Amino acid sequence: MNKTQPFLILMRSVTAALCLFAMAQPALAQDAAKAPRKDLALKGDAVCTRCHGVDDEYPVLAIGQTKHGTVADKRTPTCTSCHGASETHINRPADAKERPKPTITYGLPPPRQDAKQVDVYFGVAGKKTDTPAADRNAACLTCHQGGKRTHWETSLHASRDTTCTSCHQIHTAHDKVRDKRDQAQVCYTCHKEQRAQNQRPSRHPIPEGKMTCSDCHNPHGSAGTKNMVRDSVNETCYTCHMEKRGPFVRSHQPVQEDCSICHNPHGTTTPNLLKARPPFLCQECHEPTGHRGGPGIFTTPGTSTSSANLVARGCVNCHTNIHGTNNPTSASGGRSLRR
Ligand code: HEC
Ligand code: HEC
Ligand code: HEC
Ligand code: HEC
Ligand code: HEC
Ligand code: HEC
Ligand code: HEC
Ligand code: HEC
Ligand code: HEC
Ligand code: HEC
Fold this sequence. Notes:
The protein is mainly alpha-helical. It contains 17 helices and no strands. Among the domains are: about 5-155 and about 160-175, no CATH class; about 250-320, no CATH class. It has helices spanning about 5-20, 20-25, 25-35, 45-50, 80-85, 85-90, 115-120, 135-145, 155-160, 165, 185-190, 190-195, 215, 235-240, 255, 280-285, 305-320. The longest helix is centred in the first third of the chain and has 15 residues, at about 5-20. The protein starts with a helix and ends in a 21-residue tail after the last helix. The structure holds heme C (HEC) (10 copies). One heme C binds near residues 234, 237, 254 and 255.
C-alpha cells in the first residue's frame, strides 16, 4: 500500500503536464492552473490550496460542502484554524530533508467495517499523528466550547484521550457519527461489548435506524453518570417512556432508583431487556420463600418444591404493575404492585 505514496507525489508533479486530472475535473483544475492563489473551498485557504486540492488522495475540498465551508459565515474556519499556521510546512526550510508537517495534524480515522475501499487502497485509513490529543481538541474547542460540550473536560472520553476527530470526520459531507443510521458503527469501533449486546433478541431499535446511542448518551459528556443525556438514567428513560415516571401511589423502590438495575438498555437474551428472567431477577432482592404464610394459592398440596415452582413461573403474572401503580385498594392489601 505504502508504495502508492511516492506514486501519488509523482502524479502530483506531473499532473499539470499530463492534464490527467483536468480531464476528470476540468473546471477546478483549470482554475487552479490559471489562478493558483484563488480560494478553492474556504475563504483565505489559498495559502494551502495552491498545493492541496483535487489531486490530493484525501478529499480535502469536500469541506466546501459542509457547514465549515459556508463562506458567507464570518465564523467559518479556514485551513489554518484547524491545522495551525504551519509556516515551515508551507515554506519548507532549505535545510529540511523532508517537508515538516503542519502545526496540527489529526491522523485519519481507523478503518471501520464500512471504510470506503478507496481509503483502504490508499492506506490512509488509520493514519497516526504526533499532535497531542489535547492540542487537537483545543483547536476545535476554540469555536465549540460550551453548549453540548459543557461537560467535555470532565468526561471519560476526554480523560481517555478520545478526541473530537475520533468520532467526527471533517473533510466529508457525510459525517457518519451525526447520521442516526451510521452512528452506532462509529461507536462500535471502540465499544465492542455494546455491539454484541445490540445484536441480542431484545434490544432498542438501533439497527433499524429508529433510534441511536445519542438518544440516551451525550458523547461529549454530561452532568450525570455514564454520559446520559439527562441528569440520571431514569430521567433519560422518561424522555420516551413517560408512563414509567409516575408519581405512583405505590411505587417499587428499585424502579425509582435506577431502571438499569433490572434492564440492560443495550440488549439482552431475555425479553423486555431484562438482565435476568423472573423469578431469578426478583429473587436477587426478594426471599424465594417470601410468600411463606401467604394465601393458600401458593401451595400445591403435597410438595413444597412444586409450590416454589408455581411461584417461580408467575411473579409478573400476579405483580403486573411492576413499575408502580395508583391502585390503593388492591387485592394484595397494600401490596399494590398487584393489580
Ligand atoms: C508548497 C506546497 C504545500 C503547501 C503550500 C501546503 N502543503 Fe500540505 N502538504 C504538502 C505535501 C507535498 C504534503 C505531503 C503529501 C503526502 O504525503 O501525500 C503535504 C501534507 C499535508 C498534510 C498531511 C500531513 C501528514 O500528517 O502526513 C496536511 C494535513 C497538510 N499538508 C495540510 C496543509 C495545510 C493546512 C496547508 C496550509 C496551511 C498546507 N498543507 C500547505 C504540500 C503543501
Ligand atoms: C474544521 C477543521 C478543519 C479545517 C477547517 C480543515 N481541516 Fe484538514 N483536516 C481536519 C481533520 C480533523 C482531518 C483528519 C481527517 C478528517 O477528519 O477528515 C484533516 C485532514 C486533512 C488532510 C489529510 C491529512 C492526511 O493525513 O493525509 C489534508 C491534506 C488537509 N486536512 C488539508 C486541509 C486544507 C488544505 C484545508 C483548507 C482547505 C483544511 N484541511 C481545512 C480538520 C480540518
Ligand atoms: C474557526 C471556528 C471553528 C473551528 C476551529 C472548528 N469549527 Fe466546527 N463549526 C464552526 C461553525 C461556524 C459551524 C457551523 C455552526 C452552525 O451552523 O451553527 C461549525 C459546525 C460544526 C459541526 C456541525 C456541522 C453540521 O453540519 O451541523 C461539527 C460536528 C463541527 N463543527 C466539528 C468541529 C471539529 C471536530 C473541529 C475541530 C477539528 C471544528 N469543528 C473546528 C466553526 C469552527
Ligand atoms: C464519542 C464520539 C464523539 C466525540 C468524541 C465528539 N463528538 Fe461531537 N458529536 C457526536 C455525536 C454523536 C453528535 C450528534 C449528536 C449530538 O448532537 O449530540 C455530535 C455533534 C456535534 C456537533 C453538532 C451539534 C452541536 O453541538 O452543535 C458539534 C459542533 C460537535 N459534535 C463538536 C465536537 C467537538 C468540538 C468535539 C471535541 C471536543 C466532539 N464533538 C467530540 C459525537 C462525538
Ligand atoms: C476512539 C474510541 C471511542 C469511540 C469512537 C467512542 N468511545 Fe465511548 N469511550 C471510549 C473510552 C476509552 C471510554 C472510557 C471507558 C472505557 O475504557 O470503556 C469510553 C466511555 C464511554 C461511555 C461511559 C462514560 C462514563 O462516564 O462511564 C459511554 C456512555 C460512551 N463511551 C459512549 C460512546 C458513544 C455513544 C460513542 C459513539 C457516539 C462512543 N462512545 C464512541 C472510547 C470511545
Ligand atoms: C436506551 C438508552 C441507551 C441507548 C440507546 C444506549 N445506551 Fe449506553 N448506556 C445506557 C445506560 C442506562 C447505561 C448505564 C447502565 C449500564 O451500563 O447498563 C449505559 C452505559 C453505556 C456504556 C458504559 C458501560 C460501562 O460498563 O460503564 C457505554 C460504553 C455505552 N453505554 C455505549 C453505548 C453505545 C455505543 C450505544 C449505541 C450503540 C449506546 N450505549 C446506546 C443507556 C443507553
Ligand atoms: C429515544 C427514545 C427512547 C429512550 C430514551 C428509551 N427508550 Fe426504551 N424503547 C424505545 C423504543 C422506540 C422501544 C421499542 C418499542 C417497540 O418496539 O414497540 C423501546 C423499548 C423498550 C423496552 C422493551 C423492549 C422489548 O424487548 O420489548 C424496554 C424494557 C425499554 N425500552 C427500556 C428503556 C430504558 C430502561 C431506558 C432508559 C435507559 C429507555 N428504554 C430509554 C425508545 C426509547
Ligand atoms: C424491579 C425490576 C425493574 C425495574 C427497576 C424496572 N423495570 Fe421495566 N420491566 C420489568 C419487568 C419484570 C418487565 C416485564 C413486565 C412483564 O413482563 O409484564 C419490565 C418491562 C418494561 C418495559 C416494556 C413493557 C412495558 O411495560 O412497557 C418498559 C418500556 C420498561 N420496563 C421500562 C422501564 C423503565 C423506564 C424503568 C425505570 C423507570 C424500569 N423499566 C425499571 C422490571 C423492572
Ligand atoms: C434491586 C432489588 C429488587 C428487585 C430486583 C426487585 N425488587 Fe421488589 N422490592 C424491592 C424493595 C426494596 C421493595 C420495598 C420493600 C419494602 O417496602 O419492604 C420491594 C417491594 C416489592 C413488592 C411489595 C410492594 C408493596 O406495595 O409493598 C412486590 C410485590 C415486589 N417488590 C415484587 C417484585 C417482583 C415481582 C420483582 C421481579 C420482577 C421484584 N420485586 C424485583 C427491591 C427489589
Ligand atoms: C399467584 C399470584 C402471585 C404470584 C405468582 C406471586 N405473588 Fe407475590 N404476592 C401476591 C399477593 C396476593 C401478595 C400479597 C400477600 C400479602 O399481603 O400477604 C404478594 C406479596 C408479595 C410481596 C410483598 C410481601 C412479601 O412477602 O414480602 C413480595 C415482595 C412478592 N409478593 C414478591 C413476589 C415474587 C418475587 C414472586 C415470584 C417469585 C411472586 N411474588 C409471585 C401474589 C403473587
